Amino acid sequence: MMGNKSTVRAAFIAVTTLFFAWGFITSLIDPLVAAVKGIFTLTDVQAQLSAFAFFIAYGLVSFPAAALISRVKPVPAILLALGMMAIACLIMLGAANLAIYTLVLVGLFVLASGITVLQVAANPLAAALGPPERSHFRLTLSQTFNSFGTFIGPFLGAVLFLEGVEVKEGTAITPDVRAAALAGIDRAYFWICGLLLLLLAFFWFNRKTVAAAAPVPPAPRGIGAMISDAVSSRWALLGGAAIFLYVGAEVSIGTQMALFLNSDGIWGNSDAPFGVPLLGHAMGSDGVPGVSLQEAGKAVAFYWGGAMVGRAVGSVLLARFSAWRLLALFTAIATGMCTYVFAMGGVTAGFVALSIGLFNSIMFPVIFTLTLERSTASEQATSGLLCTAIVGGAFLPLLVGAVSDQAGYVAAFVVPGGCYLLLCVFALLAGRTRTVAQPSVVTLH
User: InterPro entries from the entry (predicted)?
Assistant: First the structure.
């Protein structure tokens, strides 16, 4: 028995809150990279270690998480994940109070490890908590809240982390500004910890009801067996490479967007963005000519907001056009946009860069689905490999940081541009390959 409708509805709301929470927490990495660069006087590569510490967890934890959930079922795994995330927030509080960057990296890794377990466990729950005929609606609704979390995270993070922080060459951060930024990090993760503990309490007291609605997990499989199955399929490997490139490109752009917009060659000496409706209002000019790092950080929300809008538009387009054609079109446009930024620079390049998020929107779910349709490995193994490939968000930002250290933020767009070009090739290959099975597993990003 699933229990009465009101209890099941409350359980679904709690699960959807998980989607929002991990979207919000993940997108806080963007302003955090800019903040730690100033707080700890880091190079771009060193600052990008924050993204590395977070996304490397996907590469290390995805398969173990799938194996764990196949043995202990989703609800205990969710409780474990929320506990890990709460502990990670406490580590972040310690890092902010002690001003130790290494501790920040440890906290981010533990936090992302919990999120990885959470994602693997929560997706089937969102589909199961209610009538089967409305499972697609529930997954879409949960994903919408995930996108909303990624939209507001960078804005609130910029408000809390970047007040007065400067990273341009020749500028220095004052002790008061540094203390205020660390206090903002402290406040953010304190309240996130509180939210996680509330969710942990809810799932604990309603664990029997939620567990009754959870789908029956597949038969337990060892990590080695799943990996062997996944790597036996050419298309599972191709899909894994595509996810690696996509997430790496998306995270690389997002984590350096504030630094890019704040640079003198883009918006650093321009007031043009403040004249754009909604964008200018959200950035909130401080009256000083040019765009400060905090104002640029607020603008990053529109990069992720574009992805949120694009998912809504993309879902309509996918009902009328084949997925591989739409992916080829969106990746080609993103390649062109990165090329424009690299070749032209200037104020307009800032607007073009922010707009890339609109075309990122459908890439993850379409790559995922195209791969599942063509993979000869089991869906469980293929999904595990694709989730592991999110580790691209750890490695490619380091490469982008190295390029920006040597050649500047504009030149660094050549890296995501190359990723999108390869993704366009992936889409064209998918269009020439027959499907072998229809996917039944839905994984959200």
Answer: MFS, MFS_dom, MFS_trans_sf, MFS_TsgA-like
Q: 437 in a domain, yes or no?
A: no
Q: Is the pLDDT of residue 439 over 70?
A: no
Domain CATH code at residue 390: 1.20.1250.20
- Chain Cα centroid distance, residue 203: 24
Asked whether residue 269 is assigned to any structural domain, the reply reads: yes
Fill in the DSSP letter of residue 366: H
What is the rounded end-to-end Cα distance, in angstroms, of the chain?
A: 30
CA distance 248 to 252: 6
- Picking from 139, 138, 416, 151, the residue whose alpha carbon sits closest to that of residue 309 is 151
134 C-beta neighbours (distance < 10 Å), count:
11
Output the CA–CA distances (angstroms, integers) from residue 158 to 296, 298, 419, in the order listed: 8, 6, 27
**For the residues of 122-140, what is the DSSP string, one character each?**
HHHHHHHSS-GGGHHHHHH
Query: Domain limits at 270?
Result: 5-431
| Contact (Cβ atoms closer than 8 angstroms) between residue 300 and residue 350 | no
Distance (Å, whole) CA 147 – CA 141: 10
| 47 inside domain | yes
User: Percent of the chain at pLDDT above 90?
Assistant: 63
63, part of any domain: yes
Query: How crowded is residue 71: how many other Cβ atoms within 10 Å of its Cβ?
Result: 12
What percent of the residues of the chain are helix, what percent strand, and what percent coil, each to the nearest 5?
80, 0, 20
The model's pLDDT over 63-88, given as tens digits with 9 standing for 90+, comes to: 888 888 778 778 888 899 999 999 99
Number of domains in the chain: 1
Q: Residue 218's CB: how many other CB atoms inside 10 A?
A: 12
| 205-214 exposure pattern, b = at least 16 Cβ within 10 A, e = fewer | ebeebbbebb
